Each structure stands twice: as C-alpha cells, then as structure tokens.
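A quick aside before the break. I want you to see a complete sequence-to-structure record at least once, exactly as it would be stored in a machine-readable document. Don't worry about memorizing anything.
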Amino acid sequence: MLSPPSLLRLGLTCLALACLPASACELRVRWNPDPPYSMRDGQGRLVGMQIELVERTLDRMGCHAVWVELPWARALVELQAGRLDLLPGALRRPEREAYAHWVEQHVAVANRLFVRAGREADFASATRLKEAWHQGLKLGVQIGVVYGADYAELLADPAFRATLTQASARRNLWQMLEIGRVDGVLASEATARWELGELGLAGRIVPTAVVVPHEAAQLMFSRRSVNAALVQRYREASEALERDGTQGRIVRRYLDD
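That is the input. The structure line, written in tokens, reads:
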C-alpha cells in the first residue's frame, strides 16, 4: 500500500501528464517545410533546428512528438480548437493569450525585407519597415504570420493591409517576387538563405537593410488540450537544455554560416 506522501507524488505526476500513462505522453506538434527550422532530409526524415529542440526537450520529459504538417494559419486554428497541442516559432500577441500557454526559447533571428537584385538601392535610406513602406509597395507575406512589432503596428493601417499579397507557402512568394508580382517579401534571414539557395535564386533575390526588430519566437501550447503543469515541465526541460549547452550546439549547427 502506498503511503500518503507517495500517493501525493503520484497524483502530482498524473496532473503533470494530464493523467495519461507514460507511454501515451505525446504532443501533437506542428511542422511545415521551413528550413533551417523544420524540413525533410534526403531520406525523408524530419530534421531542423526546431525539430531537434522540441524532440530533445520532450525526451527529457519522457514524452514524444507526433508531427502534424500544417500551414501557419491553419495551425493557429487547430491549436485554438485543441486539435493541435504545440506550435513552435510564434510571436506572443494579446489576441493569442486566451487560447495559448507560452514558453520562451531565447532564439532570435531577424526578419528582413528581400527584393529583386538591383532594387535594394531603392531602400538604401531605410532600416525599419515603417520607413521603407509607402503607398503602392506590394509586399508578399505568409497568411497569419506576424513578423514583429513594426509589422503588427502597420497592420492597423487599412492602406498597408491593402498592399499585402498573402500566401500559405513562402516558396510561392519567392516566385512571385522573381517575376515582379510583388515588390518585396518579408522572411527570416536564416530561412531565406536556405530557400533561395535551393531555388537557385540567391543571386536574383537579395536582402535589403530593412529589418523588422528582433523578437525571440516562443512556443504556444493549446489551453484546450495541454494543462499548465505539463507546460511548466516543458519549460523546465527546455531551460535545462539551455543551461547545459545542448540548445546552443543545436542552434549553431543550423544558423551559423
């Protein structure tokens, strides 16, 4: 027979794991082709910085990921409904507080404005998106993505919203930029480096000096499907990865030139 302290510890463990047996401790986690954060290698296996960080963190908890491929806007809907448990790479915004728990990851990569080669001089005097944008400038962005504080502020302006061309896949935006359907694309510096190289566009599409201010992305957990105790266990496991240097080694492997 278990003693009262043992029963208490068992109850707390049950609470932290949402009362599931250890073998069933799994989280449905969003991924989408987004190098170097998430992608498939030559053998079709899921790899990438975010894939490794999530899997190593869950391993420390005795849990595992069930990866679900979803575009960003759809992933937000699924998380809100509780059909998705974890959405990495999100920026914290007031409208998301009602349906998400948050865990910081302390990995910040700048979002930058990319244009066709030869047009970067048009933005030579601008370093912020608010300085670069003007009436008639057609920007390509991903549906549902908030690129940073400047972008969120500009979204309140109907004139700015009217000039946006939105797509669920960023690769479509690169192609639209190449043929002149949009004038610029906002994207992570690290992702652009990978994708433009793969598409053979590295010399034809180039970065400008326009940067959306750095903001570290966080992990969103669905309030409908994940309790606060499990989120705290994830936070503690993630912080342990950061302290022992595991996170830094993974990040450097994917982000260093």
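Two observations worth writing down. The chain has a mean pLDDT of 88. Residues 242 and 248 are 7 Å apart (CA to CA). We'll return to this after the break.
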